[in-house]
Amino acid sequence: QELRPKSLDIKQEELGDMVEKEMASTSEAIEDAVRRIEEMMSQARNESSGVKLEVNERILNSCTDLMKAIRLLVMTSTNLQKEIVESGRGAATTQEFYAKNSRWTEGLISASKAVGWGATQLVESADRVVLHTGKYEELIVCSHEIAASTAQLVAASKVKAEKNSRNLGRLQECSRNVNEMAANVVASTKSGQEQIEEKDTMDFSGMSLIKLKKEEMETQVKVLELEKRLEGERVRLGELRKQHYALAGPCDVAEDDGDAKPAPTPRRGILKKPPLAQKP
């Protein structure tokens, strides 16, 4: 009993309440995200026009569709959890069931938090993009994070669910829908970025031979600097992921289940040095 992992100073009898509170908090975060996106849409229509308005509307519409998909996912996950508790607790109370399966419960809480956090971050990133104070890449990263958090929530629920459960089938369908909507956010963001950002004409026709040679050397210097910086960032990302997995430990969604697998170690390929640019 002493060797069992503790849940961050939370008494096990409180775990059941934590699950319900976290799922309710996640639902509230998503509802708030939908309202904020609607406000941003109204503001964008008042303050922008032409290509900017078209891009903003497309991005915000895709974000709205993603939020609706996440909301349905959370509702379905809540129904599945109730089904799992009712079928597995026997004569025990709900609180006793969650306490008995504390590792699974902690994984469920963690997954729910991740989904709510991802939705909040996506809205904040969309707000900055619409106001032209943020980066389009932030939206793309947030979309990937939401897809990953969704997979975590489905895995946490699947561990204890019956294989022929209808609610589990619905949850998996909701997960696929979330992934599809997240991909739509990425696609609309990339296309919008291409429309908004100004492209260099690459017109060198008026340059002399000396000027061309100077520009060529300066560009080579920039390429080498960027390659060195990229290599450093790849190493940093690899170390961050290693530390993430070290802190997270093995998969927390299972207690005595053989189906759950430990979190994968980061690929060594991320530390690979990119090829040097070829001379023209």
UniProtKB/TrEMBL annotation:
It comes from the Eukaryota. GO terms for molecular function: actin filament binding; clathrin adaptor activity; clathrin light chain binding; phosphatidylinositol-3,4-bisphosphate binding; phosphatidylinositol-3,5-bisphosphate binding. InterPro entries: I/LWEQ_dom_sf, ILWEQ_dom, Sla2_fam. SMART domains: ILWEQ. GO terms for cellular component: clathrin-coated vesicle; cortical actin cytoskeleton. Pfam families: I_LWEQ (PF01608). Residues 207-243 form a coiled coil. It is found in: Cytoplasm. One of its GO terms (biological process) is clathrin coat assembly. This is HIP1R protein. The gene is Hip1r.
